[in-house]
């Protein structure tokens, strides 16, 4: 279906010529000879693209522009102005016009202006769809969490989730603003930056949805006889390439005297994967110095096994350290979802264990998981 354009001009000859030019550009044209008729048309059908002359008897183009914006603030209005009337053209931009073209009109200039206006409308619609889908998805996951009673403080969870949504939506709005500026100024660098911002936040939406889905899955702890060092070895092997790609040394320091124990190696593996991945991220931003992550295992006095993940990153401030296990809290900015540590704490709790964080600015961070167990007599 062709996009409709409302053309407003008090001169019949100009309406005829411009109608042909706009139709040749692939649009359906609706005409009005004055502002009153234009507003009457817009009240009956929501036309998004409007081209109007500024100088008209009665209601001029500037007054019409203000009334259009009150009816639909997202309408794209292109103003037609005389060559010497730049003051009115600039005033129209201040009042919300998307563009202006000067007389005598050139068909190519009009077509380019319409294309840019249509691109703005399409970008807004796409971003609105992304945001609506995100809100719908997060609401669905919220209901699942509440119905399964997976969170003790539902009010706190909803508030935290709303904050996460707000952050992503804010990022999308920022990307939209940069994209619109790129279209308005025909600046390829702005367009590239804006699209990168949108792409990044769409990826964050996907990660948030997947993390929520994983978090909502029922947890079943299945202990079995195993080597307590085995999950640590597997995580080291799994994340070694990520560490190397970020110039981070990944060290494995195992207590070789640990006996066979009854543990859930899969759950421990998942916990260590989250912690080690976070530790690598904490080191990758260091510009210089020792970039190292250490995975350590220790015997907890015959009653438990300890898994310790430490890094040499920037560290975590004391006021932030108390919040790292909160729902949807993240120190990674746009890169994080705030679910990794929350899910880790949940798994550790299901294993009747505990997790502690210790850090300070400039001295890295250390996370210690303690899992109660029983030595298996062999």
Automatic annotation (TrEMBL):
The modification 4-aspartylphosphate is found at residue 53. Its EC number is 2.7.13.3. Residues 4-118 form the Response regulatory domain. GO terms for molecular function: phosphorelay sensor kinase activity. It catalyses: ATP + protein L-histidine = ADP + protein N-phospho-L-histidine. The keyword Phosphoprotein applies. SUPFAM superfamilies: ATPase domain of HSP90 chaperone/DNA topoisomerase II/histidine kinase (SSF55874), CheY-like (SSF52172), Homodimeric domain of signal transducing histidine kinase (SSF47384). Residues 160-375 form the Histidine kinase domain. It comes from the Bacteria. Keywords: Kinase, Phosphoprotein, Transcription, Transcription regulation, Transferase, Two-component regulatory system. It is an enzyme of class 2 (transferase). This is histidine kinase. It comes from Pseudodesulfovibrio piezophilus (strain DSM 21447 / JCM 15486 / C1TLV30). The lineage of its organism: Bacteria, Pseudomonadati, Thermodesulfobacteriota, Desulfovibrionia, Desulfovibrionales.
